[in-house]
Amino acid sequence: MKHINSIEINNFRGIRRLELKGLKPITIFLGENSVGKSTVLESLFLVTGASNPFMALRITSLRAHKAISMEDAKYLFHDSDYSQIPSFSADIDGEKRNLSLVPSFSMSEGIESERLGQMGNTQQTLTGLTCTFDVQGSISYTGNSSIERSEDGNIKHKIDEKYVESLVTVSLSPYNSPGALLNEYGELIKMGRKEVILTALQLFDERISTIEATQDGLYLGYDHLSTLVPLSMAGDGVQKYLSIAIHAFRPSVDIIFIDEIENGLHFSAHKKLWKCIFLSAAELKKQLFISTHSQETLKCLASFMEEEEKMKDILNIVTLTRENDDIIPYSLSGYGLEGAMDNDVEIRK
Amino acid sequence: MKKAELFVEGKSDKLLVEQYCGKLLKEQLINYEVEVHCTGGWHVIGSPQGESFRNIMKRNAAGKNLLILDADEQPSQRVADILQWKTLYQIDFELFLFPDNQSCGAVETLLERIINPANQCVIDCWHQYEDALSKQTIAWKVPPTPTCPSEKSKIYGYLEALVGKSDSEKKKIKDEGRDFTNVQHWDLDSKGILPLKEFLISHLR
Fold first, then answer.
1. Per the structure, how many domains does chain B have?
2. Could you give the ipTM of this predicted complex?
3. Does residue B197 share a domain with residue B105?
4. Average pLDDT over residues A221-226
5. Over 50: is that where the pLDDT of A113 sits?
6. What strands lie across the sheet with A229-230, from one edge to the other?
7. Does residue B182 lie within any of the structural domains?
8. pLDDT at A111 exceeding the cut of 50
9. Could you tell me if residue B183 is inside a domain?
10. A67: which DSSP letter?
Protein backbone atom coordinates (compact mmCIF):
# COMPACT_ATOMS: atom_id res chain seq x y z
CA MET A 1 0.00 0.00 0.00
CA LYS A 2 1.30 3.46 -0.82
CA HIS A 3 1.44 6.20 1.77
CA ILE A 4 1.61 9.96 1.49
CA ASN A 5 4.74 11.06 3.37
CA SER A 6 4.47 14.79 2.84
CA ILE A 7 2.46 17.44 1.06
CA GLU A 8 2.85 21.10 0.23
CA ILE A 9 -0.35 23.04 -0.39
CA ASN A 10 -0.42 26.45 -2.08
CA ASN A 11 -3.30 28.86 -2.72
CA PHE A 12 -6.08 26.37 -2.02
CA ARG A 13 -9.20 27.67 -0.33
CA GLY A 14 -8.16 29.25 2.98
CA ILE A 15 -4.59 27.95 2.74
CA ARG A 16 -2.03 30.30 1.31
CA ARG A 17 0.82 27.90 1.98
CA LEU A 18 1.21 24.86 4.22
CA GLU A 19 3.76 22.10 4.31
CA LEU A 20 3.20 18.84 6.19
CA LYS A 21 6.02 16.36 6.60
CA GLY A 22 6.52 13.02 8.32
CA LEU A 23 2.95 11.84 7.81
CA LYS A 24 2.37 8.42 9.32
CA PRO A 25 -0.07 5.57 8.67
CA ILE A 26 -2.60 7.32 10.89
CA THR A 27 -2.62 11.12 11.03
CA ILE A 28 -5.22 13.00 13.01
CA PHE A 29 -5.79 16.70 12.38
CA LEU A 30 -6.94 18.96 15.19
CA GLY A 31 -7.62 22.66 15.33
CA GLU A 32 -10.22 25.32 15.90
CA ASN A 33 -13.17 25.81 13.58
CA SER A 34 -12.21 27.22 10.18
CA VAL A 35 -8.49 26.66 10.71
CA GLY A 36 -8.38 24.45 7.61
CA LYS A 37 -8.66 20.83 8.76
CA SER A 38 -11.20 19.88 6.09
CA THR A 39 -9.21 21.80 3.48
CA VAL A 40 -6.10 19.80 4.34
CA LEU A 41 -8.05 16.54 4.00
CA GLU A 42 -9.40 17.71 0.66
CA SER A 43 -5.88 18.60 -0.51
CA LEU A 44 -4.57 15.14 0.37
CA PHE A 45 -7.57 13.59 -1.34
CA LEU A 46 -7.11 15.66 -4.50
CA VAL A 47 -3.49 14.73 -4.90
CA THR A 48 -4.38 11.03 -4.82
CA GLY A 49 -6.63 11.51 -7.86
CA ALA A 50 -4.57 14.09 -9.67
CA SER A 51 -5.83 13.05 -13.10
CA ASN A 52 -9.51 13.22 -12.19
CA PRO A 53 -10.89 16.69 -12.89
CA PHE A 54 -14.19 15.96 -11.14
CA MET A 55 -12.67 15.56 -7.72
CA ALA A 56 -12.17 19.28 -7.19
CA LEU A 57 -15.81 20.01 -8.00
CA ARG A 58 -17.03 17.00 -6.05
CA ILE A 59 -15.44 18.14 -2.80
CA THR A 60 -16.94 21.59 -3.33
CA SER A 61 -20.44 20.23 -3.98
CA LEU A 62 -20.20 18.14 -0.80
CA ARG A 63 -19.42 21.24 1.24
CA ALA A 64 -22.19 23.23 -0.40
CA HIS A 65 -24.72 20.38 -0.06
CA LYS A 66 -25.76 20.74 -3.65
CA ALA A 67 -25.10 19.36 -7.12
CA ILE A 68 -21.80 19.90 -8.85
CA SER A 69 -21.58 23.44 -10.19
CA MET A 70 -18.79 25.28 -11.94
CA GLU A 71 -19.75 28.51 -10.17
CA ASP A 72 -18.70 27.05 -6.84
CA ALA A 73 -15.26 26.25 -8.19
CA LYS A 74 -14.17 29.81 -7.44
CA TYR A 75 -14.00 28.80 -3.78
CA LEU A 76 -11.14 26.47 -4.62
CA PHE A 77 -8.96 29.53 -5.15
CA HIS A 78 -7.36 31.23 -2.15
CA ASP A 79 -9.22 34.48 -1.53
CA SER A 80 -11.25 33.68 -4.71
CA ASP A 81 -8.28 35.10 -6.62
CA TYR A 82 -7.95 33.27 -9.94
CA SER A 83 -4.42 34.56 -10.42
CA GLN A 84 -3.28 32.42 -7.47
CA ILE A 85 -3.24 28.90 -8.87
CA PRO A 86 -3.98 26.17 -6.35
CA SER A 87 -1.10 23.72 -6.41
CA PHE A 88 -0.12 20.63 -4.49
CA SER A 89 3.16 18.72 -4.25
CA ALA A 90 3.23 15.37 -2.53
CA ASP A 91 5.68 12.62 -1.83
CA ILE A 92 3.96 9.26 -1.99
CA ASP A 93 6.50 6.63 -0.94
CA GLY A 94 9.20 8.28 -3.03
CA GLU A 95 6.94 9.11 -5.96
CA LYS A 96 6.65 12.89 -6.46
CA ARG A 97 3.28 14.21 -7.53
CA ASN A 98 2.45 17.73 -8.54
CA LEU A 99 -1.02 19.00 -9.29
CA SER A 100 -2.26 22.44 -10.31
CA LEU A 101 -5.83 23.58 -10.88
CA VAL A 102 -5.80 26.05 -13.75
CA PRO A 103 -8.94 28.05 -14.42
CA SER A 104 -10.34 28.91 -17.80
CA PHE A 105 -12.86 31.63 -18.54
CA SER A 106 -15.35 32.94 -20.99
CA MET A 107 -15.62 36.67 -21.42
CA SER A 108 -19.15 37.97 -21.21
CA GLU A 109 -20.58 41.47 -21.38
CA GLY A 110 -21.67 42.48 -17.93
CA ILE A 111 -24.59 44.67 -17.01
CA GLU A 112 -23.95 47.98 -15.34
CA SER A 113 -21.41 47.50 -12.65
CA GLU A 114 -22.42 49.52 -9.67
CA ARG A 115 -18.96 49.20 -8.17
CA LEU A 116 -17.25 50.74 -11.17
CA GLY A 117 -20.18 52.85 -12.34
CA GLN A 118 -19.63 51.94 -15.97
CA MET A 119 -21.85 50.32 -18.56
CA GLY A 120 -20.98 47.09 -20.30
CA ASN A 121 -17.93 45.87 -18.37
CA THR A 122 -16.53 42.54 -19.46
CA GLN A 123 -16.48 40.11 -16.57
CA GLN A 124 -14.60 36.90 -16.23
CA THR A 125 -16.79 33.87 -15.72
CA LEU A 126 -15.12 30.67 -14.62
CA THR A 127 -16.16 28.03 -17.09
CA GLY A 128 -13.51 25.38 -16.76
CA LEU A 129 -10.80 23.81 -14.71
CA THR A 130 -7.72 21.99 -15.96
CA CYS A 131 -5.84 19.59 -13.69
CA THR A 132 -2.23 19.78 -14.77
CA PHE A 133 -0.30 17.02 -13.11
CA ASP A 134 2.98 15.22 -13.21
CA VAL A 135 4.11 12.06 -11.51
CA GLN A 136 7.80 11.24 -11.06
CA GLY A 137 8.49 7.79 -9.72
CA SER A 138 9.01 4.32 -11.11
CA ILE A 139 6.94 5.64 -13.99
CA SER A 140 7.09 9.31 -14.93
CA TYR A 141 4.18 11.04 -16.55
CA THR A 142 2.97 14.55 -17.25
CA GLY A 143 -0.57 15.16 -18.33
CA ASN A 144 -3.74 17.09 -17.88
CA SER A 145 -7.45 16.52 -17.59
CA SER A 146 -10.14 19.12 -17.68
CA ILE A 147 -13.77 19.95 -17.15
CA GLU A 148 -15.59 22.67 -18.98
CA ARG A 149 -19.10 24.05 -18.82
CA SER A 150 -20.46 24.15 -22.32
CA GLU A 151 -22.83 26.76 -23.68
CA ASP A 152 -25.81 24.55 -22.95
CA GLY A 153 -24.82 24.51 -19.27
CA ASN A 154 -23.67 20.88 -19.15
CA ILE A 155 -20.28 19.96 -17.80
CA LYS A 156 -18.04 18.18 -20.29
CA HIS A 157 -14.83 16.50 -19.35
CA LYS A 158 -11.61 15.42 -20.95
CA ILE A 159 -9.73 12.69 -19.08
CA ASP A 160 -6.09 11.91 -19.79
CA GLU A 161 -6.63 8.25 -20.60
CA LYS A 162 -2.95 7.42 -20.94
CA TYR A 163 -2.52 7.85 -17.21
CA VAL A 164 -3.88 5.11 -14.95
CA GLU A 165 -4.20 6.10 -11.32
CA SER A 166 -2.60 3.50 -9.07
CA LEU A 167 -4.05 4.73 -5.78
CA VAL A 168 -7.52 3.83 -4.52
CA THR A 169 -8.80 6.26 -1.91
CA VAL A 170 -12.07 6.88 -0.12
CA SER A 171 -13.25 10.13 1.42
CA LEU A 172 -15.84 10.02 4.21
CA SER A 173 -16.99 13.49 5.11
CA PRO A 174 -19.67 14.68 7.53
CA TYR A 175 -21.48 16.05 4.49
CA ASN A 176 -22.23 12.72 2.88
CA SER A 177 -24.18 9.78 4.19
CA PRO A 178 -22.49 6.40 4.54
CA GLY A 179 -24.28 5.24 1.43
CA ALA A 180 -25.52 1.82 0.49
CA LEU A 181 -22.08 0.15 0.82
CA LEU A 182 -23.43 -2.82 -1.08
CA ASN A 183 -20.71 -3.00 -3.71
CA GLU A 184 -17.98 -2.46 -1.18
CA TYR A 185 -19.31 -5.15 1.12
CA GLY A 186 -19.66 -7.46 -1.90
CA GLU A 187 -15.95 -6.97 -2.58
CA LEU A 188 -15.18 -8.14 0.94
CA ILE A 189 -17.45 -11.18 0.68
CA LYS A 190 -15.66 -12.25 -2.51
CA MET A 191 -12.35 -12.01 -0.67
CA GLY A 192 -13.66 -14.12 2.20
CA ARG A 193 -13.57 -11.22 4.66
CA LYS A 194 -17.20 -11.22 5.76
CA GLU A 195 -16.28 -12.50 9.23
CA VAL A 196 -13.71 -9.74 9.68
CA ILE A 197 -16.43 -7.11 9.19
CA LEU A 198 -18.87 -8.91 11.44
CA THR A 199 -16.25 -9.16 14.19
CA ALA A 200 -15.49 -5.45 13.82
CA LEU A 201 -19.19 -4.62 13.93
CA GLN A 202 -19.73 -6.77 17.01
CA LEU A 203 -17.14 -4.61 18.81
CA PHE A 204 -19.63 -1.80 18.26
CA ASP A 205 -22.76 -3.74 19.17
CA GLU A 206 -22.40 -7.31 20.40
CA ARG A 207 -26.07 -7.99 19.64
CA ILE A 208 -25.41 -7.88 15.88
CA SER A 209 -25.33 -11.47 14.68
CA THR A 210 -25.05 -11.11 10.92
CA ILE A 211 -24.69 -8.74 7.96
CA GLU A 212 -26.48 -9.79 4.81
CA ALA A 213 -26.24 -8.34 1.33
CA THR A 214 -29.48 -8.36 -0.69
CA GLN A 215 -30.46 -6.80 -3.98
CA ASP A 216 -31.78 -3.72 -2.22
CA GLY A 217 -28.96 -3.17 0.19
CA LEU A 218 -27.33 -4.34 3.40
CA TYR A 219 -29.31 -5.78 6.27
CA LEU A 220 -28.28 -6.42 9.86
CA GLY A 221 -29.40 -9.31 12.03
CA TYR A 222 -29.73 -8.78 15.77
CA ASP A 223 -29.88 -11.46 18.47
CA HIS A 224 -33.06 -10.03 19.93
CA LEU A 225 -34.93 -9.52 16.64
CA SER A 226 -36.55 -12.13 14.46
CA THR A 227 -36.22 -10.18 11.21
CA LEU A 228 -33.31 -8.44 9.53
CA VAL A 229 -33.11 -4.64 9.72
CA PRO A 230 -32.11 -2.54 6.70
CA LEU A 231 -28.89 -0.68 7.39
CA SER A 232 -30.63 2.61 6.66
CA MET A 233 -32.96 1.92 9.64
CA ALA A 234 -30.18 0.88 11.98
CA GLY A 235 -29.15 4.31 13.24
CA ASP A 236 -26.50 6.85 12.23
CA GLY A 237 -23.89 5.45 14.55
CA VAL A 238 -23.87 1.90 13.24
CA GLN A 239 -24.05 3.13 9.64
CA LYS A 240 -21.03 5.35 10.16
CA TYR A 241 -19.12 2.67 12.03
CA LEU A 242 -19.86 0.06 9.37
CA SER A 243 -18.92 2.46 6.59
CA ILE A 244 -15.52 3.06 8.16
CA ALA A 245 -15.01 -0.63 8.95
CA ILE A 246 -15.86 -1.78 5.43
CA HIS A 247 -13.50 0.68 3.78
CA ALA A 248 -10.80 0.04 6.38
CA PHE A 249 -10.82 -3.67 5.59
CA ARG A 250 -11.19 -3.45 1.81
CA PRO A 251 -7.82 -4.70 0.54
CA SER A 252 -8.15 -2.58 -2.60
CA VAL A 253 -8.26 0.74 -0.70
CA ASP A 254 -4.92 2.45 -0.01
CA ILE A 255 -5.93 5.62 1.81
CA ILE A 256 -9.05 6.72 3.69
CA PHE A 257 -10.01 10.27 4.61
CA ILE A 258 -12.46 10.77 7.49
CA ASP A 259 -13.60 14.28 8.39
CA GLU A 260 -15.02 14.80 11.91
CA ILE A 261 -14.83 11.15 12.86
CA GLU A 262 -16.86 11.66 16.03
CA ASN A 263 -20.04 12.79 14.23
CA GLY A 264 -22.97 10.50 14.83
CA LEU A 265 -21.08 8.29 17.26
CA HIS A 266 -21.78 7.93 20.96
CA PHE A 267 -18.61 8.29 23.03
CA SER A 268 -18.80 4.63 24.07
CA ALA A 269 -18.17 3.64 20.43
CA HIS A 270 -15.06 5.74 19.96
CA LYS A 271 -12.55 3.35 21.49
CA LYS A 272 -14.00 0.44 19.54
CA LEU A 273 -13.71 2.43 16.33
CA TRP A 274 -10.08 3.28 17.03
CA LYS A 275 -9.36 -0.39 17.57
CA CYS A 276 -10.98 -1.20 14.23
CA ILE A 277 -9.04 1.55 12.44
CA PHE A 278 -5.66 0.71 13.92
CA LEU A 279 -6.05 -3.01 13.33
CA SER A 280 -6.80 -2.40 9.66
CA ALA A 281 -3.91 0.05 9.32
CA ALA A 282 -1.52 -2.43 10.92
CA GLU A 283 -2.81 -5.54 9.12
CA LEU A 284 -3.42 -4.10 5.67
CA LYS A 285 -0.85 -1.29 5.76
CA LYS A 286 -3.47 1.35 5.05
CA GLN A 287 -3.11 5.05 5.60
CA LEU A 288 -5.84 7.10 7.25
CA PHE A 289 -6.21 10.86 7.56
CA ILE A 290 -8.76 11.89 10.16
CA SER A 291 -10.00 15.13 11.66
CA THR A 292 -11.77 15.62 14.98
CA HIS A 293 -12.88 18.26 17.47
CA SER A 294 -13.67 15.82 20.22
CA GLN A 295 -11.70 15.59 23.47
CA GLU A 296 -13.65 12.43 24.24
CA THR A 297 -12.43 10.83 21.03
CA LEU A 298 -8.83 11.73 21.87
CA LYS A 299 -9.16 10.33 25.39
CA CYS A 300 -10.55 7.09 23.97
CA LEU A 301 -7.65 6.98 21.55
CA ALA A 302 -5.15 7.50 24.39
CA SER A 303 -6.87 4.77 26.37
CA PHE A 304 -6.65 2.41 23.39
CA MET A 305 -2.93 3.27 23.03
CA GLU A 306 -2.33 2.26 26.67
CA GLU A 307 -3.46 -1.23 25.75
CA GLU A 308 -1.68 -1.35 22.38
CA GLU A 309 1.67 0.35 22.98
CA LYS A 310 3.11 -0.51 19.58
CA MET A 311 0.34 1.42 17.84
CA LYS A 312 1.87 4.65 19.16
CA ASP A 313 4.53 4.35 16.47
CA ILE A 314 2.07 4.57 13.59
CA LEU A 315 0.20 7.62 14.84
CA ASN A 316 0.83 11.30 14.57
CA ILE A 317 -1.41 14.14 15.57
CA VAL A 318 -1.15 17.49 13.85
CA THR A 319 -2.68 20.57 15.45
CA LEU A 320 -3.21 23.32 12.91
CA THR A 321 -3.04 26.88 14.22
CA ARG A 322 -3.51 30.21 12.48
CA GLU A 323 -1.00 33.00 12.89
CA ASN A 324 -2.10 35.93 10.71
CA ASP A 325 -2.60 34.43 7.24
CA ASP A 326 -0.34 31.46 7.88
CA ILE A 327 -1.25 28.01 9.12
CA ILE A 328 1.37 26.51 11.42
CA PRO A 329 1.25 22.77 12.16
CA TYR A 330 2.40 21.34 15.49
CA SER A 331 2.93 17.58 15.68
CA LEU A 332 2.55 15.02 18.43
CA SER A 333 3.38 11.35 18.37
CA GLY A 334 1.32 8.66 20.08
CA TYR A 335 3.63 9.11 23.10
CA GLY A 336 2.97 12.83 23.07
CA LEU A 337 -0.77 12.16 23.07
CA GLU A 338 -0.32 10.00 26.17
CA GLY A 339 1.49 12.80 27.96
CA ALA A 340 -1.06 15.40 26.87
CA MET A 341 -4.01 13.34 28.11
CA ASP A 342 -2.24 12.45 31.40
CA ASN A 343 -1.54 16.11 32.09
CA ASP A 344 -4.78 17.64 30.73
CA VAL A 345 -2.97 19.60 28.04
CA GLU A 346 -5.35 21.14 25.50
CA ILE A 347 -4.06 20.04 22.09
CA ARG A 348 -7.12 20.76 19.98
CA LYS A 349 -6.13 24.39 19.40
CA MET B 1 -0.56 41.75 27.76
CA LYS B 2 2.34 39.50 26.84
CA LYS B 3 2.06 35.77 27.48
CA ALA B 4 4.22 33.59 29.71
CA GLU B 5 4.00 29.81 29.81
CA LEU B 6 5.26 28.37 33.10
CA PHE B 7 5.96 24.70 33.66
CA VAL B 8 6.04 23.08 37.11
CA GLU B 9 5.99 19.51 38.37
CA GLY B 10 2.98 19.04 40.64
CA LYS B 11 -0.41 20.44 41.53
CA SER B 12 0.83 22.15 44.68
CA ASP B 13 3.67 23.77 42.71
CA LYS B 14 1.10 25.01 40.19
CA LEU B 15 -1.03 26.63 42.86
CA LEU B 16 1.98 28.22 44.55
CA VAL B 17 3.30 29.70 41.30
CA GLU B 18 -0.13 30.81 40.07
CA GLN B 19 -1.04 32.47 43.33
CA TYR B 20 2.37 34.06 43.76
CA CYS B 21 2.32 35.44 40.22
CA GLY B 22 -1.15 36.79 40.95
CA LYS B 23 0.31 38.66 43.91
CA LEU B 24 3.22 40.02 41.86
CA LEU B 25 0.83 41.11 39.11
CA LYS B 26 -1.33 42.95 41.63
CA GLU B 27 1.77 44.67 42.97
CA GLN B 28 2.69 45.53 39.35
CA LEU B 29 6.02 43.81 39.68
CA ILE B 30 5.32 41.66 36.63
CA ASN B 31 3.22 42.40 33.57
CA TYR B 32 2.77 39.11 31.78
CA GLU B 33 -0.35 37.02 31.46
CA VAL B 34 0.72 33.74 33.05
CA GLU B 35 -0.45 30.20 32.33
CA VAL B 36 0.98 27.44 34.50
CA HIS B 37 1.21 23.84 33.29
CA CYS B 38 1.62 20.79 35.50
CA THR B 39 4.07 18.36 33.89
CA GLY B 40 3.97 15.50 36.39
CA GLY B 41 7.76 15.35 36.91
CA TRP B 42 10.95 17.24 36.03
CA HIS B 43 11.94 14.77 33.33
CA VAL B 44 8.63 14.79 31.42
CA ILE B 45 9.30 17.81 29.21
CA GLY B 46 12.36 16.09 27.79
CA SER B 47 10.61 12.76 27.27
CA PRO B 48 8.48 11.49 24.37
CA GLN B 49 5.42 12.18 26.54
CA GLY B 50 6.43 15.83 26.86
CA GLU B 51 5.90 16.77 23.23
CA SER B 52 2.76 18.76 23.95
CA PHE B 53 4.68 20.90 26.46
CA ARG B 54 7.46 21.48 23.97
CA ASN B 55 4.86 22.50 21.39
CA ILE B 56 3.43 25.02 23.85
CA MET B 57 6.91 26.53 24.20
CA LYS B 58 7.43 26.66 20.44
CA ARG B 59 4.08 28.36 19.94
CA ASN B 60 5.07 30.88 22.57
CA ALA B 61 8.44 31.64 21.01
CA ALA B 62 7.56 35.36 21.06
CA GLY B 63 6.66 35.26 24.78
CA LYS B 64 8.41 33.82 27.81
CA ASN B 65 8.75 30.16 28.77
CA LEU B 66 9.81 29.50 32.37
CA LEU B 67 10.59 26.08 33.83
CA ILE B 68 10.27 25.97 37.63
CA LEU B 69 11.28 22.49 38.73
CA ASP B 70 12.86 20.69 41.71
CA ALA B 71 16.64 20.64 42.17
CA ASP B 72 16.49 17.38 44.18
CA GLU B 73 19.90 15.96 45.21
CA GLN B 74 22.21 17.30 42.48
CA PRO B 75 21.23 20.77 41.28
CA SER B 76 24.19 21.20 38.88
CA GLN B 77 23.45 17.93 37.14
CA ARG B 78 19.77 18.81 36.98
CA VAL B 79 20.59 22.13 35.31
CA ALA B 80 22.86 20.43 32.80
CA ASP B 81 20.30 17.75 31.97
CA ILE B 82 17.52 20.29 31.46
CA LEU B 83 19.52 22.78 29.43
CA GLN B 84 20.28 20.02 26.92
CA TRP B 85 16.65 20.12 25.89
CA LYS B 86 17.20 23.54 24.30
CA THR B 87 19.47 22.03 21.66
CA LEU B 88 17.78 18.66 21.42
CA TYR B 89 14.32 20.06 20.81
CA GLN B 90 14.97 23.62 19.59
CA ILE B 91 13.09 25.18 22.46
CA ASP B 92 13.94 28.25 24.48
CA PHE B 93 13.20 28.77 28.18
CA GLU B 94 14.49 30.12 31.48
CA LEU B 95 15.06 27.76 34.39
CA PHE B 96 14.55 28.01 38.14
CA LEU B 97 15.15 25.10 40.51
CA PHE B 98 13.32 24.91 43.83
CA PRO B 99 14.01 25.81 46.55
CA ASP B 100 16.24 28.81 45.71
CA ASN B 101 17.94 28.16 42.36
CA GLN B 102 21.18 26.96 43.97
CA SER B 103 20.57 24.50 46.84
CA CYS B 104 19.46 20.89 46.90
CA GLY B 105 15.82 20.29 47.65
CA ALA B 106 12.37 20.64 46.21
CA VAL B 107 9.29 22.85 46.42
CA GLU B 108 8.61 21.49 49.91
CA THR B 109 11.96 22.86 51.04
CA LEU B 110 10.81 26.31 49.95
CA LEU B 111 7.40 25.84 51.57
CA GLU B 112 9.09 25.15 54.89
CA ARG B 113 10.85 28.49 54.54
CA ILE B 114 7.67 30.46 53.87
CA ILE B 115 5.40 29.24 56.63
CA ASN B 116 3.72 31.82 58.82
CA PRO B 117 6.34 32.40 61.55
CA ALA B 118 3.57 32.16 64.14
CA ASN B 119 3.29 28.45 63.27
CA GLN B 120 7.00 27.64 63.66
CA CYS B 121 6.21 25.45 66.66
CA VAL B 122 4.47 22.95 64.36
CA ILE B 123 7.59 22.52 62.23
CA ASP B 124 9.78 22.41 65.34
CA CYS B 125 7.64 19.56 66.70
CA TRP B 126 8.00 17.75 63.40
CA HIS B 127 11.78 18.05 63.55
CA GLN B 128 11.71 16.63 67.06
CA TYR B 129 9.60 13.75 65.77
CA GLU B 130 12.08 13.12 62.95
CA ASP B 131 14.96 13.26 65.45
CA ALA B 132 13.25 10.87 67.85
CA LEU B 133 12.38 8.48 65.02
CA SER B 134 15.99 8.39 63.84
CA LYS B 135 17.04 7.09 67.25
CA GLN B 136 14.62 4.14 67.22
CA THR B 137 15.16 0.64 65.88
CA ILE B 138 12.65 -1.91 64.64
CA ALA B 139 13.81 -5.49 64.97
CA TRP B 140 12.30 -6.97 61.78
CA LYS B 141 13.18 -3.99 59.54
CA VAL B 142 16.21 -3.91 57.28
CA PRO B 143 17.83 -1.51 57.96
CA PRO B 144 16.39 -1.38 61.45
CA THR B 145 16.12 2.43 61.58
CA PRO B 146 12.62 3.71 60.69
CA THR B 147 12.43 5.50 57.35
CA CYS B 148 12.40 9.26 57.78
CA PRO B 149 9.10 10.76 56.60
CA SER B 150 9.29 12.65 53.30
CA GLU B 151 9.34 16.41 52.98
CA LYS B 152 5.85 16.14 51.52
CA SER B 153 4.64 14.48 54.73
CA LYS B 154 6.09 17.35 56.72
CA ILE B 155 4.02 19.86 54.77
CA TYR B 156 0.91 17.68 55.05
CA GLY B 157 1.55 17.41 58.79
CA TYR B 158 2.06 21.17 59.06
CA LEU B 159 -1.25 21.95 57.38
CA GLU B 160 -3.08 19.19 59.21
CA ALA B 161 -2.13 20.81 62.49
CA LEU B 162 -3.59 24.13 61.33
CA VAL B 163 -6.90 23.19 59.76
CA GLY B 164 -10.05 21.85 61.34
CA LYS B 165 -11.38 18.30 61.25
CA SER B 166 -14.29 18.69 58.84
CA ASP B 167 -14.09 17.33 55.29
CA SER B 168 -14.02 20.81 53.79
CA GLU B 169 -11.16 21.77 56.11
CA LYS B 170 -9.26 18.58 55.30
CA LYS B 171 -9.36 19.48 51.59
CA LYS B 172 -7.01 22.37 52.32
CA ILE B 173 -4.24 19.92 53.14
CA LYS B 174 -4.18 18.18 49.74
CA ASP B 175 -1.98 19.48 46.97
CA GLU B 176 -4.87 20.71 44.85
CA GLY B 177 -6.67 22.41 47.75
CA ARG B 178 -3.91 24.63 49.08
CA ASP B 179 -4.23 28.38 49.36
CA PHE B 180 -0.84 30.02 49.58
CA THR B 181 -2.45 33.43 49.93
CA ASN B 182 -3.85 32.32 53.28
CA VAL B 183 -1.73 34.48 55.59
CA GLN B 184 -2.54 32.30 58.59
CA HIS B 185 -0.64 29.45 56.89
CA TRP B 186 1.92 31.11 54.62
CA ASP B 187 4.03 34.24 54.32
CA LEU B 188 4.54 35.16 50.67
CA ASP B 189 6.61 38.17 51.74
CA SER B 190 9.11 35.93 53.51
CA LYS B 191 12.83 36.13 52.73
CA GLY B 192 12.73 32.47 51.69
CA ILE B 193 10.78 33.26 48.52
CA LEU B 194 13.07 36.08 47.37
CA PRO B 195 15.08 33.97 44.90
CA LEU B 196 11.85 32.91 43.17
CA LYS B 197 10.57 36.49 43.30
CA GLU B 198 13.74 37.83 41.68
CA PHE B 199 13.60 35.16 38.99
CA LEU B 200 10.00 35.91 38.12
CA ILE B 201 10.45 39.67 38.13
CA SER B 202 13.60 39.53 36.03
CA HIS B 203 11.82 37.59 33.28
CA LEU B 204 8.23 38.79 33.50
CA ARG B 205 8.57 42.51 33.95
1. 2
2. 0.84
3. yes
4. 92
5. no
6. A208-214, A217-222, A229-230
7. no
8. no
9. no
10. -
Same domain, B96 and B146: no
Same structural domain, B122 and B101: no
Q: Are residues B87 and B120 in the same domain?
A: no
Say how many CB pairs under 8 Å bridge A and B: 52
Do B12 and B90 reside in the same domain of the chain? yes
For residues A214 and A182, what is the distance between their CA atoms, to the nearest angstrom? 8
Query: Minimum mean pLDDT among A70-79, A120-129, A255-264: which range?
Result: A120-129
Q: Which of A115-129, A135-149, A292-306 has the lowest mean pLDDT?
A: A115-129
Q: What does the alpha-carbon distance between residue A293 and residue A271 come to, in Å, rounded to a whole number?
A: 15
B9 → chain A, closest CA residue: A343
Q: In whole angstroms, what is the distance from residue B68 CA to residue B45 CA?
A: 12
Measured CA to CA, the distance from residue B22 to residue B34 in angstroms comes to 9
Domain membership flag for residue B151: yes
pLDDT > 90? residue A183: no
| B68 and B7 within one domain | yes
Domain shared by B72 and B124, yes or no: no
Neighboring chain B residues of A342 at a CB cutoff of 8 Å:
40, 49
* Percent of the residues in chain A that have a pLDDT greater than 90, as a whole number: 54
Percent of chain B with pLDDT over 70: 100
Identity of the residue in B39, B48, B55 whose CB atom sits nearest the CB atom of A343: B39
- Residue B98's domain spans which residues? 2-110+188-204
Q: How close, in Å, is residue B83 to chain A by CA atoms?
A: 20
Q: Which DSSP string do the residues of A223-265 spell out, in sequence order?
A: TT-SS-EEGGGS-HHHHHHHHHHHHHH-TT--EEEESSTTTT-
In chain A, what residues touch B59 (CB-CB under 8 Å)?
321, 328, 330
Chain A residues whose beta carbon lies within 8 Å of the beta carbon of residue B90: none
| CATH code for the structural domain at A26-48+167-349 | 3.40.50.300
Nearest residue to A99 (alpha-carbon basis) of A61, A60, A130, A57: A130
Do residue B124 and residue B106 come from a single domain?
Answer: no
Taking only the tens place, the pLDDT of each residue in A135-151 is 998 888 999 999 888 87
Mean pLDDT, range A207-214, rounded to an integer: 92
Element (H, E) at B85: helix B75-89
Tell me phi and psi for residue A199, to 5 degrees: -60, -45
Q: Give a yes or no: residue B172 inside a domain.
A: yes
Mutate to test the interface with B, among A315, A337, A342, A349 (most CBs of B within 10 A): A342
Classify residue A27 by burial, with Cβ atoms within 10 Å: 0-12, 13-18, 19+.
buried
Tell me which DSSP letter residue A311 carries: G
**Predicted confidence band of residue A327 (pLDDT cuts 50, 70, 90):** very high
In the beta sheet, which residues pair with residue B6? B36, B66
For CATH 3.40.50.300, list the domain ranges present in chain A. 26-48+167-349
Mean pLDDT lowest for which of A170-184, A189-203, A270-284?
A170-184
Tell me whether B117 touches chain A (CB under 8 Å).
Answer: no
Predicted confidence at residue A108, as pLDDT, reads: 57
Rg of the Cα trace of chain A?
22
* CATH code of the domain in which B95 resides: 3.40.50
Chain B neighbors of A343, CB-CB under 8 A:
37-40, 44, 52-53
